[in-house]
Amino acid sequence: MDMATGMATGMEAEIIMNHKPMATVDTLLKGLVVIQPKVFEDSRGYFYEPYNKKTLEAMGISDDFVQDNQSMSQKGVVRGLHFQNPPFAQAKLVRVIQGAVWDVVVDIRKDSPTYGEYYGIELSAQNKTILYIPAGFAHGFKTLEDNTVFLYKCSNYYNKASEDSILWNDPDVGINWNISDPILSDKDRNGKFLKDFKSQF
Fold this sequence. Notes:
Layout: H1 11-17, E1 22-26, E2 33-37, E3 40-42, E4 45-47, H2 53-58, E5 67-73, E6 78-84, E7 92-98, E8 100-107, E9 118-124, E10 130-133, E11 137-143, E12 148-154, E13 163-165, H3 186-189
Antiparallel strand pairs: 1-2, 2-10, 3-4, 5-12, 6-11, 6-13, 7-10, 7-12, 8-9, 8-11
């Protein structure tokens, strides 16, 4: 913004004139949405809106996000597949701000026609893709680069008593992680098999 004239210049003027901040792609798992923000770039760098409540509401995403979480992981880490049970279930908006991951979600809604099916997508600082995950999905990711920083907005606060997980390599889910010996937490080594899981969603 030119302080003398109050007029937008350069990248700011382009943003105002071409303001279509996000495009969405529905997936085969109902409610799961890939979001591609509009990125404005010039010689200085880039600008984009990773979150705009009004824009998301116009797209049908009306969750009230109340908590941001951030993690950093080295290459070869697998985190997941995590979720919180009702009444503390969380919808999430997830993205990568440094590095890259292969992000995976599993449908754990007991009445869903795609129960037990999974969806995977690469999220990276380079592609700036965002994934909207409604409540009723288990979520995890594999880091593809060292020092990967993963950011997610949650629609409910963390509640330790309600947290749960599906085993990352459950053969009944059949996720092809393309890694033989990931770096795991003790919790993630001891997730539940889907066949033993009684969904509350």
